């Protein structure tokens, strides 16, 4: 696949566009992290999903938008925090790519100083698109250290992102073939227990007897636990919210792409997440993701 640059100049291939997108994301990470202490308050605005937005969300969204739209080969920028796509030049699906982000996933953790991060999906089709249109996906995790997980046709790798004394940003690969461990260890289930369906509750009771609870309120942190130790993360369909909470374009698709390439599985309870046909860019979807055997058991439990 080739992608013309923003000026219609020499074409760039998918791999170079993807690498440039994640270079741009990594470049912003130290600046976003440094800005968080001063942005732990609500902005007073709501996003396209009707959720209260933190000042940190807006800052990360602005920085990432500027950095990503400047990348040659990016034709469109779509954010969980913005109603409409930003035209970045270049025809998406005809050589240019659409980049979808959740700029600060888990921003409710700002006040409690817990993990959060940025989720990125690089689509070879205009949004709303299915996850099969992804050519790469990744996330930055602001934990004790800043890491970035990147998945593409070559597999899944984990990098440490650091700012140098001279202001430069380095990406150091610390795991070049990230795979889900065969023996699962942890689980994390979102939503309030009284709001779970009877079928999911029965499944959760089984899993609680087998695995250790690891739920931190930020999908990127909880999924990173599953990728590291093996297990399952879910934000399930709820009795009063059958589509759950997480957004397909910005959260579920990129995470499903990453975990599938790491040897796991991801479903909405019936079909693979990557096969879910969206109606709108901000569609929500139930997400169950992790070791294939645990995901298959979940689908049988909901059947
Ligand atoms: P915020 O970005 O508003 O903190 O929401 C984070 C999130 O979208 C996802 O990262 C978590 O898995 C999920 O919501 C946590 O939701 P609960 O607060 O209902 O547990």
UniProtKB/TrEMBL annotation:
Which amino acids does the record list as binding substrate?
Answer: 105-108, 215, 245
What enzyme class is recorded for this protein?
hydrolase
Query: Which EC number(s) does the record attach to this protein?
Result: 3.1.3.11
**Where, per UniProt, does this protein localize?**
Cytoplasm
Annotated GO molecular function terms are: fructose 1,6-bisphosphate 1-phosphatase activity; magnesium ion binding
The entry's free-text remark on the cofactor is: Binds 2 magnesium ions per subunit.
Keywords assigned: Carbohydrate metabolism, Cytoplasm, Hydrolase, Magnesium, Metal-binding
Residues binding Mg(2+) 2: 102, 105, 251
The metabolic or biological pathway listed in the UniProt record of this protein is:
Carbohydrate biosynthesis
What PANTHER family does UniProt report for this protein, alphabetically?
Answer: FRUCTOSE-1,6-BISPHOSPHATASE-RELATED, SEDOHEPTULOSE-1,7-BISPHOSPHATASE, CHLOROPLASTIC
Listed name of the protein: Fructose-1,6-bisphosphatase class 1
> Which species is this record about?
Halorubrum kocurii JCM 14978
């Amino acid at each position: 696949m080739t992608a013309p640059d923003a000026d219609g100049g020499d074409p760039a291939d998918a791999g170079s566009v993807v690498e440039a997108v994640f270079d741009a994301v990594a470049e912003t990470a130290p600046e976003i992290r440094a800005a968080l202490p001063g942005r732990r308050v609500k902005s007073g605005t709501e996003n396209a999903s009707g959720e209260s937005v933190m000042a940190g969300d807006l800052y990360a969204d602005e920085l990432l938008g500027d950095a990503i739209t400047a990348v040659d080969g990016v034709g469109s920028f779509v954010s969980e925090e913005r109603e409409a796509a930003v035209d970045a030049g270049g025809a998406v699906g005809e050589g240019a790519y659409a980049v979808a982000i959740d700029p600060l996933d888990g921003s409710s953790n700002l006040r409690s100083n817990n993990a959060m991060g940025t989720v990125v999906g690089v689509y070879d089709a205009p949004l709303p698109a299915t996850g099969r249109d992804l050519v790469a996906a990744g996330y930055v995790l602001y934990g004790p250290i800043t890491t970035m997980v990147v998945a593409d046709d070559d597999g899944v790798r984990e990098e440490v992102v650091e700012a140098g004394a001279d202001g430069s940003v380095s990406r150091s690969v610390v795991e070049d073939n990230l795979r889900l461990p065969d023996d699962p260890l942890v689980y994390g289930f979102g939503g309030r227990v009284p709001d779970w369906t009877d079928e999911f509750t029965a499944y959760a009771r089984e899993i609680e007897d087998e695995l250790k609870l690891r739920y931190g309120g930020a999908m990127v942190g909880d999924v990173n636990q599953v990728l590291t130790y093996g297990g399952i993360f879910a934000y399930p369909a709820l009795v009063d919210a059958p589509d759950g909470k997480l957004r397909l374009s910005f959260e579920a698709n990129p995470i499903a792409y990453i975990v599938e390439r790491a040897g796991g599985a991801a479903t909405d309870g019936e079909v693979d997440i990557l096969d879910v046909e969206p109606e709108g860019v901000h569609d929500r979807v139930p997400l169950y993701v992790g070791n294939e055997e645990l995901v298959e058991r979940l689908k049988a439990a909901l059947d």
